[in-house]
Specification:
The protein is of the alpha/beta class. Helix content is about 50%, strand content about 10%. A 5-stranded mixed sheet has the order 1-2-3-5-4, covered by helices on one side. The structure holds zinc ion.
């Protein structure tokens, strides 16, 4: 527990140092800090991001401000995601629902709205356990961001190739943790599928409201 506290303090210090070095900021619903100087490009991407997250209810939207750090270089991104491995496809990460860090590949509206969705679930209580199910967080982020890399067809065929019992996954949402390390197409595709089935069962058309209703039934 103590090491978590030290890690948190260290992270805050690194973050404060980072802000003072890279002072290019765009103030809005959130503060964006960019390592490169291409403010115009980022502005355009943020505008598109706002469009894709518009269909998430304000009920999910956090009232607190958050930071979005767009990194140009790997060392900058590693300050926020120390175990970043270029090969594993990671494009961004969200820390304590407060800081979104993006690497060079993550500077697009899909990844930004994915991470913003994680920020937006800060106050969403969707399980008796302290943490919400990962499949819910990730599935929601995939849907809100309009990320079409993980189609159900791909999920289905990858599951068959890998010999994963699809009915077991469908009936046991928490088995997502078991498959997450196998293959991102399968794990994110499964997460998206679970959340889509919640949305299909709901009378509510707004994604955010439908999820809030579902979560009420789970706690
Ligand atoms: Zn995610």
């Amino acid at each position: 527990m103590r090491s978590v506290k030290y890690a948190a303090i260290l992270l805050i210090l690194v973050f404060l140092a980072f802000i003072s070095i890279f002072s290019i900021k765009i103030e809005g619903d959130y503060t964006a800090i960019i390592q490169n100087n291409n403010k115009q490009e980022l502005n355009l991407i943020l505008e598109m991001t706002n469009n894709s997250i518009a269909n998430v209810s304000s009920k999910l939207w956090p009232p607190e401000k958050f930071y979005l750090v767009a990194c140009e270089s790997d060392w900058c991104y590693r300050l926020f995601s120390p175990f970043f491995d270029k090969e594993n496809g990671e494009k961004g990460s969200t820390i304590f629902h407060k800081i979104i860090a993006l690497n060079k590949k993550g500077l697009n509206e899909i990844i930004i709205s994915h991470e913003i969705t994680h920020v937006a679930t800060k106050n969403l209580k969707c399980a008796k356990e302290p943490r919400n199910p990962i499949w819910l967080e990730e599935g929601l982020a995939v849907i809100v961001s309009g990320d079409d890399r993980f189609s159900f067809a791909d999920f289905y065929s990858a599951s068959q190739v890998l010999g994963i019992d699809i009915d077991y996954i469908k009936n046991n949402p928490n088995s997502w943790q078991e498959i997450t390390l196998i293959n991102p197409v399968v794990s994110y595709g499964a997460a998206e599928h679970y959340v889509r089935s919640i949305l299909e069962r709901s009378q509510e058309k707004n994604i955010g409201k439908a999820i809030v209703q579902y979560c009420k039934s789970q706690t």
